[in-house]
Amino acid sequence: MRLKFLMTGLAAAVLLAACGAKDEKKADGAAPAAAEAKAGINGAGSSFIAPLFGKWAAEFNKVGGVQINYQSVGSGAGIDQIKKKTVDFGATDAPLKADDLAAAGLVQFPSAIGGVVAVYNIKDIGNQPLVFNGQVLGDIYTGKIKKWNDPAIVALNKAAKLPDMDIKVVRRADGSGTSYLFTEFLSKTNADWEKLGASKEPKWMDGSIGGKGNDGVAANVKQFDGSIGYVEYAYAKKNGMAAASLINKDGKTVAPSAETFASAAAKADWKVPGMAASLTNAAGEKSWPIAGTAFVLMYAKPENTANATQVLKFLDWGYTAGQAQANELEYIPLPADVVTLVKAEWKKITDASGKPLM
């Protein structure tokens, strides 16, 4: 199925809603009207979730007449912008800790579930499937493994005719929640990365190639023969890129798919402060090892309550009527019981008198 994203290429800002004609009919699943809100609602952050927010925003605009403008600037910049109150909501794949949320007066909750994949470009083998584990990926990203025909890679890919070629390592150049998910997985499966730890901005190996946003990483991998990178799965599909299978915690080789992302999320503990569940290296024979979500950040007492209410209505619409778009892009809608927990968190978002906005 052809994927249609309202996104820029390497530019940071992304307009994620078309100014379409307003549909005043309230058909089943339609978003409520928003006469009291500004013409545009602004958000910024995670590029991991940008394809889905784009689909949701376009459809929400059609049925409710509210335009959602979302800047795909990376999780670090999204956190910065919501803390500076320049946007109505932020989004980050690396959740804030409870004390950080409390200090900033923010409420945090998940949006939808997706997966990070290792993508590669080796012209000699084309899109021939490759397999990696956390040890090998981690060693590539520390520079211990330098060649595509390294014995550790060959051992996992005996059928592939891997070339005697230097590996060009591509990574994010910006503060990135996708990097956080990727390095969180590596920190659980590779001793060197266990010491380095998960980070939105890790200390990358010398000679690696930086790209801004998931789009930037994808573009660099497509450009350089012999390269490897990591992106959210929707970007790999959009660009027709080869995405490796991974060996998961149960020792099973799994391919990226809605099914394997869902398996990773099945036993997640969302009843932790800030709903900050970790989905990486999850147990389960079918579980994808680098799954995650983009966490939405909003103020508990927003200055613009009309805009904040529309953000909640937008997400409420996405959790219900937007499930088809999520499935189309290989994201997993939140399970009903998790949505119930999310809506309990929404009760913390109130007007000046303490009345919940929704």
TrEMBL record:
Source domain of life: Bacteria
Record GO cellular component, one term: ATP-binding cassette (ABC) transporter complex
Pfam families recorded for this chain? Answer: PBP_like_2 (PF12849)
Q: Which GO terms describe its biological process?
A: phosphate ion transmembrane transport
Transport among the record's keywords? yes
What InterPro entries is this protein classified in? ABC_phos-bd_PstS (IPR005673), PBP_domain (IPR024370), Phosphate-bind_PstS (IPR050962)
> Which Gene Ontology MF annotations are present?
phosphate ion binding
Give every PBP domain span.
33-317
Q: Which UniProt keywords apply?
A: Phosphate transport, Signal, Transport
Q: Does the keyword Signal apply?
A: yes
Signal peptide coordinates: 1-17
What the entry lists under CDD domains is as follows: PBP2_PstS (cd13565)
Q: Which family does it belong to?
A: Belongs to the PstS family.
The entry's function note states: Part of the ABC transporter complex PstSACB involved in phosphate import.
- State how it assembles: The complex is composed of two ATP-binding proteins (PstB), two transmembrane proteins (PstC and PstA) and a solute-binding protein (PstS).
Q: What is this protein called?
A: Phosphate-binding protein PstS
Species of origin reads: Ephemeroptericola cinctiostellae
